[in-house]
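Check this:
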Amino acid sequence: MALSALVAALPLLVLAVALAVVRAAPWKAAIAGAVTAFALAWLVWGMPLALATSAFTHGMAFGLWPISWVVLSAVFFYNLTVASGDFDVIRRSLARLTADRRVQALIVAFGFGALVEGLAGFGAPVAISAAMLAGLGFEPVTAAVLALVANTAPVAFGSIGTPVTTLGGLVAPILGRDAASVTRDLSAVIGRQLPFFSVLIPAYLVVLLAGWRRMLEVLPAVLAAGVSFALVQLLVSNLVGPELTDILAALACLGALALLLRFWQPRVVYLGEAAPTAEPPAAPDPPARVARAYAMYAILVLVVLGGQLAAPWLRKLSWDTAWPGSFAVVAGHATPLVVREPPVVAQPSPYPLRYRLELLSASGTLVFAAALAALLPMLAFGLPARSFAATFARTFRQLRLPIATIAFILSIATVMNYSGMTSSLALALAATGVLFPFFSAFIGMLGVFVTGSDTASNSLFGPLQATTARISGIDPLLAAATNSSGGVMGKMISPQNLSVGAAGVGAVGREGQILRRVLGHSLLLTSLIGLLAMLQAYVVPWMVAVRSRE
């Protein structure tokens, strides 16, 4: 079993070495890992060539639609707000709320960074919030550290919920359920883990910046940011779903801080260690212009919410089929060629490889529709009509390699799942026994450290965690959710994110210095996620008990 697990881990090791040691481009590393997984499935695990090809192509198709479609639409909406000037108006309005460095860190790194994470994700929040902090006068490395640490609480629901959507689609076949209901249940479980840290992170940020005593001086702002974000994160993730969790929580956080600052300001303004290249304060935008900028995000929220309410009707316009090459026709019915056997499951059971193409109810389609709706007021206020097509083309060029990376990483996950490689790893991990929930958090953290993406970590390790949990007698939803929640704590130490943070503040070459300042925080926060998972598994299992709303 140990040898089987070691060989099964080779695709992940190839991916890790290519990214972290060879420093290959992510898309090249993903191709190397996918080729390794395919070869092992065929030559070592004995998966028929046609069936291995079927699993490989299914993973790529799932990576392209709906996953990459969500990412493309989300980043396109964000780029459109940049092209229209709305993003800069919001940025300036937030920067003018206070001169206190502690509260600025809460507004920019935590609140605004979470809003960008919910819209775009994939490194944009760290680059933008770190650059904003440096522009406000923060010392560059400190700005990067604050942006990296703040980019933890929102990551699991980033880019219109892409990490959770991906995880749900991969875990659903393991549980024998539909992807939509599993995605909502995972959203609920993750939403019962991360709010504890959403309350903690604002205080953590201010302590990192100014120390405990100065954190207590701005405790009202710390509580307003953390509690508002955590409460909305809990409610939306459990009652609505993963798509709008970050956006609504971030808007609630920013709104709570803006309201608080109308009636309260720190008694002593803390300026900290100012950078010599701080940008001069910008002239205030007219209130009507600020309102119009925020209205673009209101349009996004309303369109996505409306699409979710209409989902039962929109899903009727979808196509669901057994994936070609993964089944045999017996008595006129498609019979899966893959069957899971004990001890992975209690009884032999089919493991169908199906593909569902939802054209109108897909999150990416709803976000794209929001961009179309937002375009009308943008055009009315002077945005050239050609900007829409030009922005979409620029977004596609920006994401063409990340999209390829996503497709190949999903192919790694699918081939490993359906060949039995994931089961071999799960049987070995089950030897950790009662401590498995604690180690689940570190597995997720390791995945994000290597890939730089919670979506990629969920793709690689989410099914593994769910399978191991079933063997160990633990709730598979808890293990899969802990992979995502633990993964967010690895975001701050991933080489890709460190490079993004350093570039955002003009500190290229100082990534090692930034890493030394965030490594301990990553390990501590991951350990706390692991302890919370242990409590949820054995002490308060009712926190994980969810019932699908479909």
